[in-house]
Design brief:
The protein is mainly α and 94 residues long. The protein is 59% helix and 0% strand.
Length: 94
């Protein structure tokens, strides 16, 4: 894959931190910056895909209601801890 130059402005603290970490890893700061940008973009794409999949399921009527989720969370660390709710598509308004 070919590369092309790209200029960014970093505040002084961020630049120093990047350079310090690059020295620890014995890598150029630009290599760490590229890795960080790639990881951030991959993370955002994965989050967006998960949200899109959840919206698609909800549009199909497959979802967990807020009441079901809250009941499950409220049961954590109690003697009567509930199993994780399963998407049923039922809501209080139906």
């Amino acid at each position: 894959m070919s590369t092309s130059p790209y200029s960014i402005r970093l505040d002084e603290d961020l630049r120093k931190t990047l350079e310090r970490e690059a020295a620890i890893e014995d890598r150029p700061p630009a290599q760490l910056a590229v890795r960080a940008i790639r990881m951030m973009l991959e993370s955002k794409a994965a989050k967006r895909a998960a949200i899109d999949a959840a919206v698609e399921k909800a549009d199909q009527g497959k979802f967990i209601t807020a009441d079901e989720m809250n009941a499950w969370i409220d049961s954590w660390d109690t003697e009567n801890e509930l199993s994780a709710p399963v998407a049923s598509g039922q809501s209080n308004s139906q």
